[in-house]
């Protein structure tokens, strides 16, 4: 049995015995830790996975608590129907707030959560229908199978059962196609959208899930306490939830448990100890936690759980090498016949105000050929790539892929059609394994939702995605690195990982942006062999590259650009002898006896 499984079972056993090992005060504190953990687990998804910071989660806790409190005391509803109503209300509110909030970026996003978190808190204290500052009392306890929960010990099993259920379902969800898409949000929208991931959809899902977890915590709190008032749902409490996540490790599920436990226990201990030491009463624990926060951010920016996990690895035996999955690979799309036109660019222009980055560029790419774009720095090659892959929209002209016009499409649409790309600056998820980075490319080839993933209903599909990703690693010579974090590889191999990820999309056209940059001589030879194999298999390849020796030995045709215009097109030999190309690279030469070597030196 794995050490992780043993520790998990030990933790569950300890939770089961806890009510009989601690007193009534300790039991109440343990219940509050569980309630906080539920909220922080939502922040792990929202902030740790999605990279979206929120200070307003306490407002959603309050919405859940006040909804069930009002329906229980005024309308006489069952607590369980109160939970349903609270989840509906919070989901609707999260969708509206998310629609506004998630459009922002940078520091504006967390600032907006401060704004609506404070606004909702003020509503709780100023609406007399829900008790104003006094709040609501007389809330009915939760009944389970006819058994009324009236003591902290009875609520303990329900609260921590919810915690364990959330940990299990979220772990399943993150270990899936949908989970990889969620983790890809930290890699930036450009990469994620190019892999067919609807970033706005996944941001909204994370925002709503975090709000729903907070709502469940508020529902449990209201019925356990029997009354609610605005104080526990203040903006300060929302900041404390985020603090718990940072202390424990905002990127780890068990970090949420550790952070909530450590924060709550230390807060209680310091609130009792510091007044005795200082000889006066006051909230001195806030100062102590401020200092603690600074120390943790300096010494353990990823949280304390990451340090415990690293310590545990020292005692574990080395993991066995990952074996090739035995599941069937995903089905492949029908590809154009060799020689068929795959991509057609006609009179494409791109302007940024008065700057003309591309001016009336035209060319074709056929199945089973490699077409190279060359040109000095600033020639407009990357801009042209972005227009073709629908990252940017062309100002004029037409781009047709497999006979369909795509110049007004988005990145996800062209990715679904079979166009995939790499990037000039490597865009991988450095903490994710190489295998999972490549599996991210197969996102559009799956169909199960995050709900199915959470309940492990997608295991057959997930096994096929992993098998497909493994096959691409083998094709690219990276199988031995499958378990390593992608960020631990040298830059040259990271570029090859990007190619493997692009191949996992099952493309008809592959756009490679400087794939040989950072590779050693032997690595370039292996890359050239891989691209030759792909060409023989009927794949169309369009690449931008500055290594002219690499280009001239690989490309079937070459398009040369300078100052946003096409200056030459033809075979490698024809282009390297073209006067305009020599002029662009060298400013003109008297004796162009060895133009390829001279151009290479110029680049």
Task: Indicate the topology.
Blueprint: H1 3-21, H2 24-49, H3 57-73, H4 79-101, H5 108-126, E1 136-137, E2 143-144, E3 147-148, H6 152-174, H7 177-183, H8 189-194, H9 199-225, E4 227-228, H10 235-248, H11 253-278, H12 285-299, H13 304-315, E5 341-352, E6 355-366, E7 370-374, H14 381-388, E8 396-401, E9 404-405, H15 411-417, E10 419-421, H16 434-439, H17 450-454, H18 459-475, H19 491-503, E11 509-513, H20 521-536, E12 540-544, H21 548-554, E13 557-562, E14 565-570, H22 572-576, H23 579-586, H24 595-602
Parallel strand pairs: 7-12, 7-13, 10-11, 11-12
Antiparallel strand pairs: 1-4, 2-3, 5-6, 5-8, 8-9, 13-14
Helix pairs in contact: 1-6, 2-6, 2-9, 2-10, 2-11, 3-4, 3-5, 3-9, 4-9, 6-9, 10-11, 11-12, 18-19
Would you write up a description of this structure?
By secondary structure, the protein is α/β, with parallel strands linked by helices. It is 55% helix and 12% strand. The chain is built from 24 helices and 14 strands. It has a 6-stranded mixed β-sheet, sandwiched between helices. A hairpin with a 2-residue loop joins strand 8 and strand 9. Helix 2 runs parallel beside helix 6, helix 2 runs antiparallel to helix 9 and helix 3 packs parallel to helix 5. The longest helix is centred in the middle third of the chain and has 27 residues. It is elongated, with a radius of gyration of 29 Å. The mean pLDDT is 89.
SSE class: alpha/beta
Uncertain runs with pLDDT below 50, 5 residues or more? none
Strand order of the largest sheet: 10-11-12-7-13-14
Determine Rg (CA atoms, Å): 29 Å
Q: Give the overall shape.
A: elongated
Q: Biggest β-sheet, characterized?
A: 6 strands, mixed
Helix content, binned percent:
55-70%
Instruction: Please count the helical segments.
Output: 24
* Spatial separation of the terminal alpha carbons: 57 Å
Please, what is the average pLDDT? Answer: 89
Strand proportion, as a percent range, falls in 5-15%
Instruction: Please give the number of β-strands.
Output: 14
């Amino acid at each position: 049995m794995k050490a992780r499984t043993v520790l998990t079972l030990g933790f569950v056993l300890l939770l089961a015995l806890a009510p009989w090992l601690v007193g009534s005060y300790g039991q109440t504190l343990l219940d509050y830790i569980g309630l906080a953990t539920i909220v922080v687990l939502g922040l792990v998804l929202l902030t740790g996975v999605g990279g979206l910071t929120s200070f307003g989660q306490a407002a959603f806790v309050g919405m859940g608590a006040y909804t069930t409190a009002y329906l229980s005391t005024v309308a006489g509803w069952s607590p369980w129907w109160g939970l349903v109503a609270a989840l509906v209300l919070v989901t609707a509110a999260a969708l509206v707030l998310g629609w506004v909030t998630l459009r922002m970026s940078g520091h504006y996003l967390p600032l907006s959560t401060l704004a609506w978190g404070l606004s909702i808190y003020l509503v709780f204290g100023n609406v007399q229908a829900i008790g104003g500052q006094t709040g609501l009392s007389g809330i009915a306890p939760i009944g389970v199978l006819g058994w009324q929960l009236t003591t902290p010990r009875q609520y303990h099993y329900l609260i921590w059962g919810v915690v364990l259920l959330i940990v299990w379902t979220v772990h399943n969800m993150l270990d899936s196609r949908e989970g990889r898409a969620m983790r890809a949000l930290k890699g930036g929208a450009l990469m994620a959208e190019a892999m067919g991931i609807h970033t706005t959809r996944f941001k909204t899902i994370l925002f709503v899930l975090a709000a729903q977890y907070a709502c469940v915590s508020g529902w449990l709190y209201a019925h356990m306490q029997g009354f609610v008032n605005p104080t526990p749902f203040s903006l300060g409490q929302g900041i404390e939830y985020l603090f718990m996540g940072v202390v424990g490790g905002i990127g780890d599920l068990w970090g949420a448990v550790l952070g909530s436990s450590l924060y709550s226990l230390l807060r209680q201990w310091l609130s009792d100890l510091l007044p005795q030491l200082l000889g006066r009463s006051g909230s001195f624990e806030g100062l102590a936690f401020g200092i603690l926060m600074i120390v943790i951010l300096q010494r353990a920016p990823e949280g304390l759980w990451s340090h415990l996990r690293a310590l545990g690895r020292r005692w574990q035996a080395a993991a066995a090498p990952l074996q090739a999955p035995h599941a069937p690979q995903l089905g492949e799309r029908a590809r154009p016949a060799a020689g068929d036109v795959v991509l057609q660019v006609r009179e494409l222009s791109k302007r940024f105000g008065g700057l003309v980055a591309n001016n009336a560029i035209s060319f074709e790419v056929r199945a089973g050929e490699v077409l190279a774009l060359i040109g000095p720095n600033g020639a407009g090659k990357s801009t042209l790539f972005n227009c073709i892959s629908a990252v940017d929209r062309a100002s004029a002209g037409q781009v047709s892929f497999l006979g369909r016009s795509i110049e007004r499409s988005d990145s996800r649409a062209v990715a679904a059609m079979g166009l995939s790309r790499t990037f000039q600056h490597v865009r991988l998820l450095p903490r994710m394994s190489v295998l999972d980075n490549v599996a991210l490319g197969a996102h559009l080839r799956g169909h199960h939702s995050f709900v199915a993933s959470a309940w492990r209903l997608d295991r057959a599909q997930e096994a096929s995605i992993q098998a497909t990703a493994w096959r691409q690693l083998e094709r690219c010579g990276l199988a031995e690195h499958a378990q390593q974090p992608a960020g631990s590889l040298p830059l040259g191999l990271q570029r090859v990982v990007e190619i493997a990820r692009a191949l996992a999309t099952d493309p008809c056209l592959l756009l490679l942006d400087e794939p040989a940059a950072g590779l050693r001589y032997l690595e370039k030879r292996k890359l050239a062999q891989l691209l030759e194999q792909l060409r023989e298999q009927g794949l169309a390849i369009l690449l931008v590259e500055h290594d002219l020796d690499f280009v001239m030995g690989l490309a079937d045709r070459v398009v040369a650009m300078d100052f946003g215009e096409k200056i030459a097109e033809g075979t490698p030999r024809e282009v390297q002898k073209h006067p305009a190309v020599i002029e662009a690279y060298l400013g003109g030469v008297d004796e162009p006896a060895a133009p390829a070597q001279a151009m290479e030196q110029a680049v």
